[in-house]
Description:
Blueprint lengths: L3 H17 L3 H8 L1 H8 L12 H12 L13 H9 L1 H37 L9 H33 L23 H7 L2 H11 L3 H28 L7 H20 L3 E3 L2 E3 L13 H4 L15 H8 L11 H14 L12 H20 L9 H4 L7 E3 L2 E3 L2 H4 L31 H14 L3 H8 L1
Antiparallel strand pairs: 1-2, 3-4
Amino acid sequence: MPNLAFHLEVLDKVxxxxxxxxxxxxxxxxxxxQFAALGALGPDLLRYIPISTSLCDALVxxxxxxxxxxxxxxxxTNAQLQELFLNPVGAIYALLFRLVVVPNWPxxxxxxxxxxxxxxxxAAQNELAIPGIINEAQDVLNKSKALKNTLPQALPNVxxxxxxxxxLPPWMEQTLPIPVxxxxxxxxxxxxxxxxxxxxxxxxxxxxxxxxxxxxxxxLGWLCHIASSVTGEPFINNIxxxxxxxxxxxxxxxxxxxxxxxxxFYQSNAHxxxxxxxxxxxxxxPLCSANLQDMFNVAGLxxxxxxDVPDAVKAMATGNMGTLPSQFPAEIANLFETVVNQxxxxxxxxxAGFSANTFGQAFVGAFAVYAVIREVDDPGRVGECWITHPxxxxxxxxxxxxxAHPRVLRDLFLSRDRDTASGRVENEAVIAALDSGFDxxxxxxxxxxxxxxxxxxxxxxxxVAK
Length: 466
């Protein structure tokens, strides 16, 4: 399914079109842009709920006390295994933040600050400033080498655990009764539940229950997310070879490339000649410097621009939320809880449970993830951004299977089911935000180019265009 950058580009276009037509909804969203952007995260916001301190500590212990060949998440307690199943994305980010990001944040921040300074010197052609940064350059070089030496020590065990977490499928594909029987929808992860059950009804109720301008902007942003998901997810399915339910992690991985392409294309005012972009991909605005976390930061959280590790990142890395969730606007958290209970009878809701506090925690987690993506913004300098949000031309496709950039997973393929085909989208009531103009040739050219950048198979590109 498309990720945040894609949905924010759609949101911008919807706002522009509504405002051009004199629709007050466009003005309202534009005047409350952060709340509309938060809504544009849609159910995906709930992917980022931080895990508990207990599970976080257990995963860290597993990574630090076992050789790679002897690491198994099956040694966790039943309660921890259930939480891991219900919140795999939060668990992955907690482990990465705890063992990789937080310990190396000062070094990463210094390297990033140095290159920002150097970029300014080069742009100004200020040769007189170069002697003054020579000593700093040597220090940065030494720390970069040290970083490249220390990171590989932590990554193999972390990668092993992440690989096992990736193997946990969504609820309906689960074969074991964890946490409930596979046929029981209460086993849904929270984000998947809102995506697969009464999606249109929930979106309508959200808008109808909104009273303040902040709430209305949030609800309209949520509607934009639903509209762009319905139109965008079949495209992702086409590339991955099947739907999210059977290709859930591959789906997310491909969506990162689509995000990078979409953001780069529109933010760089690019155009395509066949499969060739102008300006070239290397000159596109990188997604990792887009500061997406600022676009939905309705709670005013600190992103660590002063050099310290952001509190949200520390919270995600430890499971200790402190008072951060309480900084999330109560009018949005309470609206969310009210509409969930209005739309879904209590007996049918997921075991993980919805609450106003859950939504606040998810916001903290999402902010932390996008703040970290910003911090490792250049794949040529620090070497982490291409894992989470790669450049649009970096995908390697081998023998009909989707594989990551070889520096990330080398010869390891992402799992997929060759017998699973994309199905049609079931009817849902969605906002008419994407009209027939989307199918015109001028708009389809970027779509074809995006498909070509992500999937070199011409047949798939033509299928997406059709």
